[in-house]
Automatic annotation (TrEMBL):
Superkingdom of source: Eukaryota
PANTHER family: FUMARATE REDUCTASE (PTHR43400)
Single GO MF descriptor: oxidoreductase activity
Protein's name in the database: FAD-dependent oxidoreductase 2 FAD-binding domain-containing protein
Organism whose genome encodes this protein: Gigaspora rosea
Ranges where the FAD-dependent oxidoreductase 2 FAD-binding domain occurs: 5-97, 185-344
Keywords: Flavoprotein, Oxidoreductase
Length: 412
């Protein structure tokens, strides 16, 4: 086994894993099929979740319950538990009205630092871009490396592998899963949930509200499909002010325009059971920011089955040695419906968990290979005797058996 952990994918999850490998003293190779790192992570806009941060109400238990409820009980509780441990200090740096997109900011920071390390210490970190990983190399049941194609040639790299290749919602390659599941998909801009979080309303083609805007995204999307189009997202001036930098981004791209409020619904008592209304009252004399809305394919729900160590499991739920995964490609964390903001959280958390597991696996294997080599040398020195020496990496114990012959009889 080579002395490196291989990370496939240079998005937030892959880079989180790669940095953790370096922190732990290991060497890392990051491969990405694009000419630049970042993946979808640099597009992620206002939301990153975290238990125990200033904006979270109710503590880790409430966050875990929300995640499980949103996942429709399809997530593994032990995988959810890890989401509660993310660095509150880091996340407290981000505010909704801040001029920072957390996905972009964190991912760029990780990119810059790893590029600097790769330049200054090429034996510690290697970055390969514009090369697509096409195959996992196996030895028996274990994954021992990857194959990628460079200038038409197949190249091989060896080491435990962390897959962090993201989802397939924006896969427009030749034979994508996207074509199979949503053949008419087009590229659109995401209207971040934060726009609804600050009090943005959804109005249907008749100017009526048709759902609880704070409901889970699968519920909101389902109701958009059912209602009369066009669906408009409406932010009054208070809501716009709270999320100023973000709405300017949408206005700047021509996705939102300013309107007078004459045609807008003004009911406050909610027929859909919505309990929280921010930045009210909505008055007819106010100015509004309005965008046309339609559902989009944003995220790949669930994926490769992992356990709480980020180890990949096969169809029989057996761990595949040497293979780990994190980020959007990893399944079992968000279940049927991901909470807005929890993907970035999952990327950082499981990137780090995957690194821990891959590093441990690498060190254990390197250690056992070195130990067995040393033991082989000892055996040679004990040649006159019949000697069996073995090293068991699971309990890190050496078994030594010496036997010798007296007039043809074997003694132990
Ligand atoms: C517009 C938008 C806004 C979003 N906003 C939010 C938000 O506010 N909050 C939130 O939590 N989530 C948000 N998400 C979701 C979140 O951004 C993603 O789920 C997350 O960034 C995925 O990170 P990742 O590291 O798993 O994958 P990515 O960041 O997509 O990185 C995967 C990388 O793997 C590379 N790759 C893929 N296949 C191969 C291969 N075979 N060989 C080599 N390299 C390969 C890709 O080139 C890519 O660079 C948003 C998504 C979008 C599209």
């Amino acid at each position: 086994m080579s002395n490196q952990v291989i990370v496939v994918g240079g998005g937030l999850s892959g880079l989180s894993a790669a940095h953790k490998v370096l922190e732990r003293g290991g060497n890392v190779l990051v491969l990405d099929k694009n000419s630049f790192f970042g993946g979808n992570s640099t597009k992620a806009t206002p939301d990153i979740n975290g238990a125990l941060i200033k904006t979270q109400i109710g503590g880790p238990e409430i966050f875990a319950q929300d995640t499980a409820r949103s996942a429709r009980d399809l997530a593994h509780p032990d995988l959810i538990n890890f989401l509660l441990e993310i660095l509150p200090l880091l996340l407290n740096g981000f505010r909704r009205n801040s001029k920072m997109f957390p996905g972009m900011t964190i991912t760029y920071a990780l990119m810059e630092v790893i590029e600097e390390i790769a330049n200054n210490q090429p034996d510690r970190a290697r970055l390969i871009k514009k090369e697509r990983v096409t195959k996992l190399i196996k030895e028996g049941d274990a994954v021992i490396g990857v194959e990628y194609v460079k200038d038409g040639q197949t190249c091989k790299e060896y080491g435990p592998v962390i897959l962090a290749t993201g989802g397939y919602a924006a896969d427009f390659t030749e034979d994508p899963l996207l074509k199979k599941y949503q053949p008419d998909a087009k590229i659109k801009f995401l209207a971040a949930e934060a726009l609804r979080g600050v009090g943005g309303l959804l109005l249907n083609g008749e100017g009526k509200r048709f759902c609880d805007e704070l409901g889970h995204r699968d519920y909101v999307t389902g109701d958009i499909w059912k209602t009369k189009v066009p669906v408009r997202l409406v932010l009054n001036s208070k809501a716009s002010k709270e999320i100023e930098w973000h709405f300017k981004h949408y206005v700047g791209r021509g996705l939102m325009r300013k309107f007078s409020g004459e045609a807008l619904a003004k009911e406050i008592k909610d027929p859909f059971g919505k309990k929280f209304f921010h930045n009210i009252p909505i008055t007819i004399t106010d100015q509004f920011h309005i965008a046309l809305m339609s559902p989009i394919l944003l995220y790949t729900m669930d994926g490769i089955d992992i356990n709480a160590e980020s180890e990949v499991r096969d169809m029989q739920e057996q761990v595949i040695p040497g293979l780990f995964t994190s980020g959007e490609i990893a399944g079992g964390i968000h279940g049927a419906n991901r909470l807005g903001g929890s993907s970035l959280l999952g990327c950082v958390v499981y990137g780090r968990v995957a690194c821990d597991s891959a590093s441990r696996y690498l060190f254990q294997n390197l250690f056992s290979a070195t130990a067995n080599r040393r033991l082989g040398q000892i055996v040679e020195q004990l040649a006159p005797y019949q000697t069996t020496v073995s090293f068991d990496p699971t309990n890190q114990k050496v078994h030594l058996e010496i036997s010798w012959s007296i007039i043809g009889t074997l003694k132990r």
